[in-house]
Amino acid sequence: MNVRSGGPVSGTRFSSAGRSGRHRFRSRSPRERATSTIIAIVIIVLVVGGAITQNVWQRQHAADIIAKGTSVEGTSLSCERTGGRRNRSSCQLRWEYVVDGQRYTFRDNQHTYRRWQTGLEGQRAEIFYDPERPDQAARGDLIVD
Prior knowledge:
Layout: E1 2-4, E2 13-16, E3 23-26, H1 30-67, E4 71-81, E5 90-99, E6 102-107, E7 113-114, E8 124-130, E9 133-143
Antiparallel strand pairs: 1-2, 2-3, 4-5, 4-8, 5-6, 5-7, 8-9
């Protein structure tokens, strides 16, 4: 009697040894191993490809906004944590800027800082924005006194 295990040895087949109560474990067939390997590779390629595509899109979007040339001065408000559990010390600045009396904020995904760095809040920078959609912005150069 062959049964698929759903417990901690998931994916391993075992067969009952009859009256002795012991089970013999058999490894998966070469075809099953090859299929599992191919599926794992496809998943990895999709995840990595998606991350690269998102990064390229964000950079291109920021470049498009900067190319429009409309800018105001903005101020950094806070440094928000980025990454998952492994990267707890990184953060990205949230910026505030005003266009025609309306306040906007955005998180700068292009620059990453360490949370322990001092003086991140209150920095000033040139903020480029899309005149047709002022809520779309990208950070330019920092303004140094």
